[in-house]
Structure formats: structure tokens, C-alpha cells
């Protein structure tokens, strides 16, 4: 519009000057090398105006042509992007349907035209790992790494696949590099939890429990389960690699709350028994049973081989006085009686235990106690019961 107005102004000025100086056109001489051009001023003005007009028209036509070409190019580009998105969407559906090969083909078909190629390559890596082709998976992961802002998404996808394939050491390496930069990422923390459990990295597992809880990945119940699992693992590791004294020192450092957990008490007692630290095992068991009855712990008592088993027997008999139907106490006493080859007494305790609850191990022991008393028919009947429980 501005150029059009400018052109009319020039034309108007030319008409005004031409009219005002009619008959006094003047003289213009243009000399270029050995050539000369002569014309009147009016002719020059008209020529300039016409040249400007042609220039303006040419510019307008050129712009329209360029706009048309640009619009055409943009249309083709948008069309490619739309088709790429459609293929990717269909590929994701195929991935969810378990059609791995078709999913891979769909998401990679027009990945270069997609506005988010990273998504295409990560989905392709998922399809490849589902097909068991790790070489192809690695190739797609490498292509994904070349995309902008891809480090976190690529690493988490790779770690998730490594966990799924049981490559826990590789997953740990992948996740460890990310943890310091992304300590609150829920997916990363959840994967780390699984890896620590599988690699038995108990202290590392305990260290991330507060983060897991804060991120609401685990609830209070699961938090307790994880903490107990980790402490049991640490007790086992300490028992294997250290002395009895160091194992007890570790136990003593635990909080009072943890030392009242039945699961930990039983585990600690078993670890001491395995180290032949029978006196220490009984001390922990006896103190625990003063505060609460732990049925599983009662069954550990017969494995504590004291020189004098009388204190253990007294402990069990005291519990039976409180609860005559305490099956585990009867079962424990029966095992001690069998160690002493007191078969009738063992039989009585086992029958009492089985009257309260069904237990395959107790039936096996009862059959043995009956055989030792030459009660063959009764032993056979009990053995049939064992078989029925097994099947």
C-alpha cells in the first residue's frame, strides 16, 4: 500500500512539474563510456515513473509467488508430520496389543518427520526388547540419545528394560548416574528399589526409604516391610562375614521398636543358631517371649542346643500353662522330646498341636513317633494324611 501511494505521489509530482514547465522541458545528457543518451527532463521523469511502476509490480508478483511456494511447502511439511503422528499413535496401540513387529514398523516409518522423534525411537526400543532383539534395542536407544533433552527419558527407559530382562547390575549403573541429579523422580526411585532388593544392597535400600515414602511410592505398611527385609538382609550379611560379637553389636544398635519386631527377633535367633551361638540365641528368645508370644520363635527353640535343655522346656511349659492350646509350644516340646527319644510324650504333644491346627511337618513327626513305638497301623494312617496334604 505504501509503495502504491508513493507511486501516485511521484506521478502527481511529474504531472505538476510537466504542466508547470510546459515548453521548458530542459535537457538531460547521460554519457556511459563512448555512448551518450539524450532526453528531455519530462521524458526522464516519465521513464523513472514507469520503471518504478514496473519494479513495484514485479516485486508484488514475486512476493505472491514466494508466499505460494512457502504455503505449498508448509502444507507438505504439515502433512508429513500429521501422517507421522498417525503412524506413531497406531504403533503405540500395536505395542499395547503385543504386536511388536508391527509396532516397530509403525513408529519408525516416518520418525524423521515426527515433531518428537524421541518418542518414536523409545517406543521402537520397547518393541525390540519385547522381541528379544537387544542389538536392535541398543540401536534405537542410541538414536534416541541423539535427540534434544533426551537423557532422562532414555536412561529411565533403558533401566526399565534392563530390570525387566533381569540385568540388575546394568540397571544399577544406569540409575546411579541419574539419582544425584533426579533424587525425587518416582520412576527412578521405584526402579532403584527393585534393583537394590535383587542385588541385596540392603543399606542402599534403607537409604532411599525416606525418599520412597515422601514420593508416596510406598505406604506405611510397605515401608515397614522394606525396612524389615533390609535389616534381615543386613543381619544375614553380618552373620556371614563377621563374628558373633559383631552380630550382637549390630543387633544392639537397632532401635527399640525394631528389636520388638517378631520377624526380626526370629531371624536374629536363627542367625545365632547357625553360628552355634546357642546361649546368645536363647537369651534373645527368652527376653522376647517375656514381652510377647511369637509362635514362629517357639519352633526355633528346639534348634537351640544348650547343654541343659531344661530352661527351654520350662519356658515352653510356662506358655502352655497360660494357653493349653498353643500349638507351636506343643510342637516345640514334641521335637525336644524326640531328641531325647521320649516317643510317647512327643506323640501326646504332637496330637495336641494337631488338634489346634493342621501342619504337615507335625504329621510327619507324629508318624515317626508312632513308628518308633511300633504302632505301624496308626503310623500308616498318619502318613496317608501327609500325602493328602501334599497333594
TrEMBL record:
Localization: Cell inner membrane
Name this polypeptide is given: Protein HemY
Species name: Vibrio marisflavi CECT 7928
Protein task: Involved in a late step of protoheme IX synthesis.
Coiled coil spans: none
Keywords, in A-Z order: Cell inner membrane, Cell membrane, Membrane, Porphyrin biosynthesis, Transmembrane, Transmembrane helix
Topology within the bilayer: Multi-pass membrane protein
The organism's place on the tree of life at top rank: Bacteria
